[in-house]
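This part of the workshop introduces the protein records we will be handling. An example says more than a description, so a record of this kind follows:
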Amino acid sequence: MGLFWIAEGFNAAQLQVSSSAFSLGLNPGLCVLACFVGNVIVSLPCAASGYLGSKLGTNFPGTVRASFGMQGSKWAMIVRAVPCIIYYGIQVSLAGQAVQACTTAIWPSFANWKVNAIPASANITAQQILCFVIFWLLSLPFLYLPIKTLRFLFVAKSILVPLYWTAMFTWSVTAAGGFPDVWRMPSVPLDGMSVGYLFGVCVNAAISGNATFAVNIMDISRHSKSDRAAWVTQLFALPILVTLTELLGCTMAVASSVLYGEVQWNPLVVINNFENRPGKFFAGALFVFFNIMTNVTGNSIPLANDLTGLFPKYINIRRGQFICAVVSFAICPWEIQAKATTFLAFMGAYTLFLGATTGVMMTDYFWVRRGYGINISHLFKPRGIYWYNYGCNWRAFVAWFVALAPFIPGMLQGMGVRIINKGILNLYSWNYVLVVTFSGLLYVVFAMISPVPVRTDDEDLGKLYLIDGLDPEVVTGVSSRFEGKADEGSDIEKKNYRSESSSAIV
């Protein structure tokens, strides 16, 4: 699990969190501090999720059924699936710029190829869209690789990342002449923002960069041999290793302000400005490799897990990964990358939905069901205790939507709608912490008013199979031991169980 955060914590989107806040006028030291605060905060739900996956041996599509219901869980899967597609596209867009760095390092004339072929309003150049397509095509074979093969590539990334970080940090400090005065200058926020508001936005952006793992990490930790290791790693490795990545992003932005007279918040733009051609090539090539691994493990596989849960009859893990790649191309992700404000607005907005899901899930297990746990067999039993009303747990949905309501004005502000009330905007800048708290408290209140079923007299055979390491396909015989007759959907549920159990990330 420690190697996971060395490898997964280093990607271009993480580098941009601190650098984008610096470009908007926040002092670089405060940028790094805000990132550290955000990473410490998000490590708590990540640790809880890691423990949950290890304890139950189930992944997200299976576990979320306990809190949202057998049918209602599909909403939670959709909520998790959407950012996977968008983040996949963002990573492809960034890595396309790394391909551009490699290409111009070999053929410098490529920098002048079709310069004005695409209007500036498109927010992408002809070179960039060509390199975007090249990286997108390069990624496709990796989606076809089995998990066992990806393990070795993941280990290779874990070895290369510290070396790459050291090289780029050394360059950044050397190019800037050490730590220039900008590190000690007061913050001068742009666009009328206050320092506190911008600090909160940076904290929230740092959280949102890993908020997906607050629900994704159980897909990995379910294979952990130690429940303790599954949550302790998240508490310490995440805030330290990810903050180091964001420190590098800030030092690169500071170096760009010294070298070029303006802040380049996108690290790939900085690399493309390198004059040393071998250095530019290798910096770009390693970024290409790193982003492929990030996209496969952090975006395409989680989406594929969700799609197999939504459409188990038609989609398997591999098909789901290719669907992720195709849709991510269609959303034009370079539009999100166009401006630092747009990037931070997106990062902050989608954190709301993931935070509401996290709050409901964690309070459901650690508070409402404390002492009882989750009956794994019933997660895959139609009409079991997690069927609730028509397959949906209304308490989870009411808590989810009501918790979001106070933050809608702030989200609209990020979309360009002018909001005058500064108090609402300041509230929104800490939206993840607050929405997790609100949704969790609301769910507890509703569960007290209308208690949820927490126990059953059935033996939890699913837990025996998962925890004891027996073949999950044996579960196909479990339904005959339950009272009553399973409905026609039971075959699909069992297919989904086998697909999720055999295809999750290891």
